[in-house]
Amino acid sequence: MGFVFGMAFEKMYYFSMLILIALLCNGCGNRQEPLQSKRVKTTETIADLGALPVKVTEPKNNPSTPEKVQLGRLLFFDPILSGNKDVSCATCHQPEFNYAEFMETSIGVNGVGSGSNRRFIAANDIPFVKRNSQSVLNTAFNGIKNEAVYDPEKAPMFWDLRIKSLELQALEPIKTLEEMRGNGYHEDKILDEVIMRIRKIPAYQTLFSKAFSGESQPVNQVNLSRAIAAYERTLVATNTRFDQYMRGDSNALSSSEKDGLNSFLVTGCAKCHSGPMFSDYKLHTLGVPDTDNRKESDSGIGNKYAFRTPSLRNLRYTSPYMHSGKFKTLDQVLLFYEDVAGGKILNPKVKTAQMDTLATHMDVNFKDISRIVEFLNTLNDDSFDKTIPASVPSGLQVMGL
C-alpha cells in the first residue's frame, strides 16, 4: 500500500515538474529582447527610386526664354569668362563626355589641347582642378525627391554641397584659381573684369539686351549667371529605358536587367542612390583614395572626408568615377564597395570611426557586380543636346585653347 502510494506521488511530482518546465520555456519564448540589441535590416524597393520629370522646373526669378538660352550657350563655350581667356565652362564639361570630362581631375587654366592630348603649358604653376568634373547633364533636377515639390533655388551643387542653385553655381568656376581664374586676378575682382570685357563686345550687348529686355544695363553678374543656368537647364536626358519602365513600359528592361535592379536594391545601393536622380544629395565618408594629381589630401568640408552622393545617370559617358576620379570602371567602383563592406579603408587618412555605416553595412558580392552594372546601363540616354556653337562673340577659340 505504501509502495503504491509512493509511486503515485513520484509520478505526480515528475508530472508537475514537466508542466513547470513547459511553462518556463514558453515564457522564455515570448520574452522580448531589448530594442537596442536588435538590428532591423530594411531593404529599399523600386518605390524609393523614380523616373525623372519630363519637364524642368524653373526658378520664378529666372524663367527660360529662347534668347536667354542662346546667350547662355555662347557664354558656356566662350573663353572670355576666364582670367587668361584660355578656358571655358565647356573645357571641363564637354558634350561628348556627357558634359563632364574623361580625366581623373581636369586641367583648367594654363592648359592646351583637348581630350587625351590636353596638357599644361610649359613653366606651369597652376595645379590640376581639385576634384573630378561632374556632369552638367540633368543638374536641372539636382536634389529632386519623390512626392516632393521641387525648388530649383535650393538645388544642391558641387561635391561638397557648398552652393545651392544653378545660378550661383555658374559663377563659382570663374572665381576658382585652377578652374578659370588663374593668377592674373584676385577672386574678388575677376567677375568685375569679365563683365567689363563683355560690355565691350557689341554682339554680347545686343544679346543681353534681348535676353533681359527692359533693363538699363543688362550686362551684369546676375544676368550672366541666369543666362548660363537657363542654358544648363536645357541639358537633360529624361528618357532612359529605366524611365520608360517606371512610366509603365514593362518591356523596357530585360529579365537580366530586372535582376540587376533587384540586386541594386538588395545590396543596399539605394540607401544613398535613391530618388529620380539616384542620389540622396547627402555627404558620406567612404574612404575613397585621393587623386595623385594633387599633393595635398582632399578632406572635404569640415575635414571629414565626406562627399556628396553622385547621380548614377548616364554613367556610360562620365568615367572616371568618384570625387577623386580614381576608378575608371563601374566594376572598380562596386569592388571598392565590396572592400568597404569587408572592413577595408583605401584612404589612409580616413579613420574607421569616420566611415559611413550605410556603406560598411552594404552586402555587395562579386557575383552581384555584373548584374548591377547591367542595370546601371539602363540609366543611359544619349539623346541630349550636344550642339557646339561654330563661333562665340568674343572671337576667341570656341571652348578655349
Give the arrangement of secondary structure elements.
Elements: H1 2-30, H2 66-76, H3 89-92, E1 111-112, E2 119-120, E3 156-157, E4 163-164, H4 166-169, H5 172-175, H6 177-181, H7 190-199, H8 202-211, H9 221-232, H10 241-246, H11 255-266, E5 283-285, E6 306-308, H12 330-341, H13 357-360, H14 366-376
CATH class of the largest domain: Mainly Alpha
Mean pLDDT: 91
How many helical stretches?
14
Give me the strand/helix succession: HHHEEEEHHHHHHHHEEHHH
Look at the structure and name the CATH superfamily of the largest domain: Cytochrome c-like domain
DSSP strand content: under 5%
For the biggest sheet, the summary is:
2 strands, antiparallel
- DSSP, total strands: 6
What's the gist of this structure?
With 401 residues, this protein is mainly alpha-helical. The chain is built from 14 helices and six strands. The strands form three sheets. A two-stranded antiparallel ribbon has the order 1-2. A two-stranded antiparallel sheet has the order 3-4. The protein has a two-stranded antiparallel ribbon with strand order 5-6.
Describe the structure.
The strands form three sheets. A two-stranded antiparallel sheet has the order 1-2. The protein has a two-stranded antiparallel sheet with strand order 3-4. A two-stranded antiparallel sheet has the order 5-6. 33% of the residues lie in helices and 3% in strands. Strand 3 and strand 4 form a beta hairpin. The longest helix is centred in the first third of the chain and has 29 residues, at 2-30. The protein is mainly alpha-helical. The chain starts with a helix and ends in a 25-residue tail after the last helix. The protein has two domains: 66-232, Cytochrome Bc1 Complex, Chain D, domain 2 (Orthogonal Bundle); 238-379, Cytochrome c-like domain (Cytochrome Bc1 Complex, Chain D, domain 2), CATH 1.10.760.
